[in-house]
Specification:
With about 180 residues, the protein is α+β, with helices and mostly antiparallel strands. It has one domain (about 15-170). The chain contains five helices and seven strands. It has helices spanning about 15-20, 35-40, 100-110, 125-135, 155-170; strands spanning about 15, 25-30, 50-60, 65-75, 85-100, 115, 120-125. Strands 2-3-4-5-6 form a five-stranded mixed beta sheet. It is elongated, with a radius of gyration of 18 Å. The two termini are about 20 Å apart. The structure holds zinc ion. Zinc ion binds near residues 78, 80, 81, 141 and 147. Zinc ion binds near residues 80, 81, 83, 141 and 147.
Length: about 180
Amino acid sequence: MVGQGGKLVGEGDFDALRLAGQRQSLGGSLDVRTLPRAAERLADDGPVPLAWRIVGTSDAVGRPALEVALEGRVPLECQRCLQVFFWPVQQRTLLLLARDEAELARLDDIDEHEVLLAAAPLAVRALVEDELLLTLPYVPRCGDGRCEGAPVDAAPAVARAPTAFAALAGLHPPATKKQKRSN
Ligand SMILES: [Zn+2]
């Protein structure tokens, strides 16, 4: 990895609670093609650089948290006209850190932030991939203005209902809804 601006750089495991306590940060750039779950959603060939940054911080009431920021553009295939288009990724998410399973359950119940179990070291790549997957549309659509071919009527009706829902969801940042995760 090549560092940027003297930040700590790494793609390995890190102690999230320590990062938060010491207000440190990690950052770098990785190729989305090397993230297995995200890679299967990509169109085209070639590397897909994604800048990432993980900042140790706290929430408004002082609980340890991570801010995860992603920036890049991801080639997807439009499910309507089958053309490749670039989906902009500019994501910033605050993740509360739980020290153990009990705290995870408690924070999950009372808080609207995403909560991350940080009892064991976290893997940078898995964390970045999780956040990226939340930003990608379930059914990619390039946008009506540019969409050619538009075989909408050829698509079975059953396939269109979830498409409309997913397209709506894709217009908004993913809800910071309660979400249990183990890494
Ligand atoms: Zn299209």
